[in-house]
C-alpha cells in the first residue's frame, strides 16, 4: 500500500494494557474497567492473548460494518486459538461469497414472516416450562427457564425431538463454558465428548431427513445446494452445532441478566408492562444493556484504520458488544436501564454481513418470555443470601438466578 | 383512502435486515423473504403518522435516508 512499513511492535508497546476475556470479575466490574479504557486508552493491546481491545461504539461499529471490506471474522476468538480445535465455524467465521450463499439459504428460514408463524409454538414452550415451577414459589430461573426455553424453541423450530433439550443443553454448556471449576483437561475432555456425541446425533438427523424429507427447516438446509453441490455432511454438522449454540446461550443470557436486574429493581419490572405497546422498546433496552456476544475481527487488507491507528494485516481486534452499547457518547448514564431512550441502535445483534440470523426469533422469544413470566411472577425478589453468579468468557451471562415469588395455584 | 409513498428510501447496499423500520412503522415499511426492509409504495391512510426522524435514527446500518423533496 505505502512504502512506509507500520512498526507494529512499537504501536503495540505504546498501547499495551492487558485484557483478560476470561476474567472472574462481575460484568459490571468488567464494564467499569472498559469505561476507564474508553476514557484513557480506547484502543489497547493485550500482550497476553496477542489481540487489540476496542472500547468505543464508533470503533466497534466501524469494524463490524467493514466485514469483507478490510476486515474478516476468522478467527472469531480473541487469542486466535480455535476454541474446539476444529475448522472455521459455519457461518460466523466464513466471509465473502460462501458466507453470502449460507445467508441466502438461512435468512429466509428465519425471516419475520416465518418467525411470526412460530409464535404460538414458542409461547406454548414458555407456558409449559413456567408451569413446571409456578406453584413452587421459588426457582433457579437459569436451569428452569432461561436456558431450556431457547433450547426447546430451537429443537421445536428445527423439527428435532424436544425431549432432547436436556442433552443438548449439556453439550452447549460444555462447548461454551467447559467444566466450571474443573481443570483444563476436564474441560477439554468434556468438549471432545460433547463434540463426538452432538455430531453423531446430528448425523442421524441429517440421514433421516435425506431418507424422509419433511416440511421443516432442517430438511430445507439438508437439501440445499450451492452451485449444484449439496452441503457436505461435515459442514452441515458444523452449521447445526453453531445454530444450536448461537441461539441458546445468548438468549438465555439476556433473560437471566434481565431477571436478575428486575429482582433488584422491581419498579422497572412494573414499568416494562405499564404500556403493552412499549414492550418492544423495553426489550430493545434490555438487549442493549445485556449484550452477551463478544466477537473478534481481523484485519484482512494490507492495513486498516481503527480508532486513529493504522493496523497491519492479521491484527486481531476483540470487540465486546457491551463495550459499544455502554458508550456514554450515545447512551447517557449508560449503565442505567431507561426504557424511553432515544432509539440509538444497539449492536447486540452485530452489524453488517454477520448480523444475527436469529434477530427476529430472539426478539419474539424475549417478548414472549417476559410476558409469560410476568403472568406468574408479577412480583419477585432474589432468594436470601444468593447473589447471581456471573461469567464473562465467550458469551457474557449469569449462571444462576434464584428467585422467590408468590406461588400460583396449580 | 391511500397516501403517497413516504419520503424515505433504503440504501440496498447497507440494509442487512435488522427489521427496525418495519417493526416500528409497519404501515410504511415491509420485510421481504430475506428480512430486508422496503418502503411501501402506498400507505394506508389510517397508518399512524410516523416520526420519520426517529425511525431513521433507529436503523443500525444508517441505511434509511430522506428522499430529496421536489
From TrEMBL, chain A:
Superkingdom of the source species: Bacteria
The protein's matches in PROSITE patterns, at most eight in alphabetical order, are given as: CYTOCHROME_P450 (PS00086)
One Pfam entry for this protein is p450
Q: Which GO terms describe its molecular function?
A: heme binding; iron ion binding; monooxygenase activity; oxidoreductase activity, acting on paired donors, with incorporation or reduction of molecular oxygen
Q: Which Gene3D superfamilies match?
A: Cytochrome P450 (1.10.630.10)
Work out whether the entry's keyword set contains Heme: yes
What keyword terms does UniProt attach to this protein?
Heme, Iron, Metal-binding, Monooxygenase, Oxidoreductase
Family classification: Belongs to the cytochrome P450 family.
**Listed name of the protein:** Cytochrome P450
Q: What is the lineage of its organism?
A: Bacteria, Bacillati, Actinomycetota, Actinomycetes, Propionibacteriales
UniProtKB/TrEMBL annotation, chain B:
Q: Which UniProt keywords apply?
A: 3Fe-4S, Electron transport, Iron, Iron-sulfur, Metal-binding, Transport
GO molecular function term, any single one: 3 iron, 4 sulfur cluster binding
This protein's source sits in the domain of life called Bacteria
Its cofactor is: [3Fe-4S] cluster
What name has this protein been given in UniProt?
A: Ferredoxin
Q: Which organism is it from?
A: Aeromicrobium ginsengisoli
Amino acid at each position: 500500500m505505502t512504502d512506509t512499513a507500520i512498526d507494529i511492535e512499537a504501536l503495540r508497546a505504546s498501547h499495551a494494557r492487558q485484557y483478560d476475556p476470561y476474567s472472574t470479575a462481575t460484568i459490571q466490574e468488567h464494564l467499569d474497567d472498559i469505561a476507564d479504557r474508553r476514557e484513557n486508552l480506547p484502543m489497547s493491546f493485550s500482550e497476553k492473548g496477542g489481540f487489540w481491545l476496542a472500547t468505543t461504539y464508533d470503533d466497534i461499529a466501524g469494524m463490524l460494518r467493514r466485514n469483507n471490506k478490510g476486515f474478516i471474522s476468522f478467527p472469531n476468538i480473541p487469542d486466535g486459538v480455535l476454541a474446539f480445535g476444529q475448522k472455521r465455524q459455519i457461518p460466523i467465521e466464513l466471509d465473502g461469497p460462501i458466507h453470502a450463499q449460507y445467508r441466502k439459504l438461512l435468512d429466509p428460514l428465519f425471516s419475520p414472516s416465518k418467525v411470526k408463524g412460530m409464535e404460538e409454538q414458542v409461547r406454548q414452550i414458555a407456558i409449559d416450562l413456567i408451569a413446571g415451577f409456578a406453584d413452587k414459589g421459588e426457582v433457579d430461573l437459569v436451569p428452569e427457564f432461561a436456558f431450556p426455553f431457547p433450547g426447546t424453541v430451537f429443537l421445536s423450530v428445527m423439527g428435532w425431538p424436544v425431549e432432547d433439550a436436556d442433552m443438548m443443553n449439556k453439550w452447549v454448556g460444555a462447548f461454551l463454558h467447559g467444566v466450571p471449576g474443573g481443570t483444563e483437561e476436564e474441560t477439554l475432555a468434556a468438549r471432545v465428548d460433547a463434540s463426538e456425541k452432538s455430531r453423531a446425533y446430528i448425523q442421524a438427523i441429517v440421514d433421516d431427513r435425506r431418507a424422509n424429507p419433511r416440511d421443516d427447516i432442517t430438511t430445507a438446509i439438508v437439501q440445499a445446494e450451492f452451485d449444484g453441490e449439496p452441503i457436505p455432511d461435515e459442514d452441515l454438522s458444523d452449521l447445526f452445532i453453531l445454530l444450536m449454540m448461537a441461539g441458546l446461550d445468548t438468549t438465555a443470557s439476556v433473560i437471566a441478566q434481565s431477571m436478575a436486574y428486575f429482582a433488584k429493581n422491581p419498579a422497572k419490572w412494573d414499568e416494562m408492562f405499564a404500556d403493552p405497546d412499549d414492550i418492544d422498546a423495553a426489550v430493545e433496552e434490555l438487549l442493549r444493556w445485556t449484550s452477551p456476544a463478544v466477537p473478534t475481527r481481523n484485519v484482512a487488507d494490507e492495513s486498516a484504520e481503527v480508532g486513529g491507528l493504522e493496523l497491519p494485516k492479521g491484527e486481531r481486534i476483540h470487540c465486546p458488544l457491551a463495550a459499544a452499547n455502554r458508550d456514554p457518547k450515545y447512551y447517557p448514564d449508560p449503565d442505567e436501564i431507561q426504557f424511553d431512550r432515544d432509539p440509538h441502535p444497539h449492536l447486540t445483534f452485530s452489524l453488517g454481513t454477520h448480523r444475527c440470523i436469529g434477530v427476529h426469533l430472539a426478539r419474539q422469544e424475549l417478548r414472549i418470555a417476559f410476558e409469560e413470566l410476568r403472568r406468574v411472577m408479577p412480583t419477585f425478589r432474589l432468594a436470601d443470601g444468593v447473589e447471581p453468579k456471573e461469567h464473562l468468557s465467550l458469551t457474557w451471562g449469569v449462571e444462576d438466578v434464584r428467585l422467590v415469588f408468590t406461588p400460583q395455584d396449580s | 383512502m391511500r397516501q403517497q409513498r413516504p419520503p424515505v428510501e433504503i440504501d440496498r447496499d447497507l440494509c442487512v435486515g435488522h427489521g427496525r423500520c418495519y417493526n416500528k412503522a409497519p404501515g410504511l415499511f415491509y420485510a421481504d423473504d430475506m428480512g430486508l426492509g422496503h418502503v411501501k409504495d402506498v400507505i394506508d391512510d389510517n397508518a399512524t403518522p410516523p416520526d420519520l426522524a426517529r425511525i431513521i435514527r433507529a436503523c443500525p446500518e444508517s441505511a434509511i435516508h430522506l428522499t430529496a423533496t421536489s
